[in-house]
Amino acid sequence: MELLIENIRTYIPLSAADENIIRELFHKKVIHKDEHLLEAGHVCRRLIFIEKGLVRYYLFNNGEEQTHYFNKEGEWVCDYQSFLPKVPATVYIQALEDTTIWTISYDDLQTFYQEIKYGERFGRLGIEQVFIDIIRQMGSLYADKPGLRYEKFTQAYFDIAQRIPQYYIASYVGVKPQSLSRIRKRNSTQF
Predict the structure, then answer these.
(1) 57 pairs with which residues across the strands?
(2) Pairing mode of beta strands 46-52, 99-105
(3) From residue 65, how far is each of 10, 38, 68, 75 by CA, in Å?
(4) How confident is the model at residue 188, as a pLDDT?
(5) InterPro entries per the record (predicted)?
(6) How many CB atoms lie within 10 A of CB 119?
(7) How far is it, in rounded angstroms, from Cα 162 to Cα 41?
(8) Quick one: fold of 2-118?
(9) Which among 44, 121, 133, 150 could bridge 79 via Cys, Cβ 3.0 to 4.6 Å?
């Protein structure tokens, strides 16, 4: 839980009383490799912090899986489009390796906002970061060619790229695995 508390502390100051409240509101769980934290059609009911592990977000587009995001240790996981309005999700969130998480329900998150001195600031700053990430990713999807998307992937995920299967990276970039091999070869000869 210390990694969770330290992460929250990067957004807001915490008192000892705040830390005790956090310890009561968050619950630890282990998700095994290939298990889903969320499936499309179900309502996302928890905000999740990854203590250890790796997950991917994906959806089905024309019958094919399309990976569109990854989260690792020290990051937050949630389908906010489902979580906030409490409607069925359109995405899947899957563990790519055994993953230890800390979860908080929607109702407990409201308690967090009310009882933690700067709780609402934490929520605002977190959502602002999600918004920036989504805008950046959407811009890349529409404007960047696959080679540049792969280059941006390696910059954004340099520390976990070796932990992600190549076919998920290809899906994220928007190409078939064979095309990703050509892109990787072409990029390696440029340096």
Answers:
(1) 69, 93
(2) antiparallel
(3) 34, 15, 10, 23
(4) 66
(5) cNMP-bd_dom, cNMP-bd_dom_sf, RmlC-like_jellyroll
(6) 21
(7) 31
(8) Jelly Rolls (2.60.120)
(9) 44
Distance between CA atoms of 101 and 74, rounded to whole angstroms? 10
Spell out the residues 6+ positions from residue 6 whose beta carbon is closer than 8 angstroms to its own: none
- 69/152 Cα distance (integer angstroms): 13
Structure tokens at 171: 């899906």
The answer to pTM > 0.70 is yes
Rounded CA separation 27/38 (Å):
17
- The CA distances from residue 20 to 2, 25, 101, 151, 161, in Å, are 12, 9, 18, 42, 36
Reported as a single tens digit per residue, the pLDDT across 145-188 is: 888 888 888 888 888 888 999 899 999 888 888 888 888 877 66
Over residues 13-33, the pLDDT tens digits come to 999 999 999 999 999 999 999
Distance CA 66, CA 145 (A): 16
Strands (E), the chain: 27-31, 36-38, 46-52, 54-61, 64-72, 76-77, 92-95, 99-105
Quote the tokens at residue 43.
């309502």
